[in-house]
Specification:
By secondary structure, the chain is an alpha+beta fold. It is built from 17 helices and 13 strands. It starts with 7 loop residues before the first helix and ends in a 16-residue tail after the last strand.
Length: 485
Amino acid sequence: MQLKIENLKSFISSMVFCLGLLATAWAQTTPQDSTLVITGEEEQLLLAQQADSVKTFQRFKADGIAAVVGDYLILESDILKMKADAKTQGMDMSQINDCQLVGRLMENKLYAHHAQLDSTIVVSADEINAMIDQQLDRMMAQVGDIEKVLAFYRKDSEADLREELFKINKERTLSSRMQDKIVGEMEVTPEEVRSFFNSIPEDERPLFGDEVEIAHLVIKPEVPQSEKQKVIDRLNEMRTDIVENGASFSTKAVLYSQDGTSVRGGQMSITRNDPLDKDFKQVAFSLQEGEVSKPFKTEFGYHIVQLDKIKGKVLDIRHIILIPQVTEETVQAARKKIDSIRTQIVNNEITFDEAARLYSEEKETKGDGGKLINPKSGDTRFELTDIDPLIYDQVNNLEEGEVSSVLMDQTRTGTKFFKLVTVNKKHEEHLANYAQDYTKIKELALREKQLKSIEKWQREKIMDTYIKISDDYKQCDFKSNWLKQ
């Protein structure tokens, strides 16, 4: 199989589309809390979608059926929604037509249909409802209240919206798990990677853009013990009022909690598998129904949690988080400290690697000299377009071994901190090299293997599944044999 590609980015983009345009929407349905979740990316804001989504609603055809796959219908409106979702996610739709979108939607329905028939794939109502709770939390945090969310989705009641979200989330979850079952455990051997690379003609090998390997050193202003104690005392007062006087936990969460769940009275539905702070989960799962925890600390702040109900593996809880504040004095002390560290590095009194190991207050990176890992590739290389805009200009203008000026950033909870950045190594644009670019080539080889496995699965399942396609799409040149010709 010859791979006619000009560069890695275009090849990966095409592979990603084939393996799952669904993933762009799925990323917004995973149960996460805006503060407690352990993640490297922030989710798309609902407000960023509003203008295009409203225009799209105005163009929908009235329930025109484009195709039927098993038990699932594909409406003309689904195609328009998919276009809007892809556009919102920043995908270039100029080379993607309606036939390709219908084909992708049929793939999603095929996965979901056969997931329902597979006894090893279980998706519970509690799990889907927990997703919906988290989605509504985030939506309301973004637009203000449930009424604005209902107006945006043109629903008369929260029950109507929940019903639609339930169908969407269940289908997406079924589809995702079927895909995971097909390719989730798949790996490639070094021999397969080499064979894949050697199969690409030299004049068609991917072109890798300019990349950098970077490291940073983080200094955080200290939170005074007096500020921590103020927060603990305030949470204890709230807990006493709730436990002894019957005050409403929900009301206090709305009034005082410092994260996105406050608009729903601190309500969350969680499971042990959710990517939440481990200390938070440990406390939540130690409670009895109706019990309110004592104040406890996580990396995000101080909390109290109330367990409302246990529903199988899902907990319905409420929580309040208060975040102790740094003072101007501690901010200035942190700035003075990092200025001193930078001076030592610039004067060659200490290397950046040594300084990061000795002084950096980011535990995840200090042990490796502050080296940053690219979450997309799993290695230490970053394309310049992948770098945080905050440090892009600094990094782009640095030479190898040079140290940036002091940068100020803030955490997701709004706490300021300072950092230094250095470029450990620069890699100029070059054709793929097996030894130098092994990690990326391995990723491409795995994607090709996954794609072949999915294509084989689709060929077999299409022949075993009831499929009906509207006349409007029977002239499409589908990649898969949807017309069973």
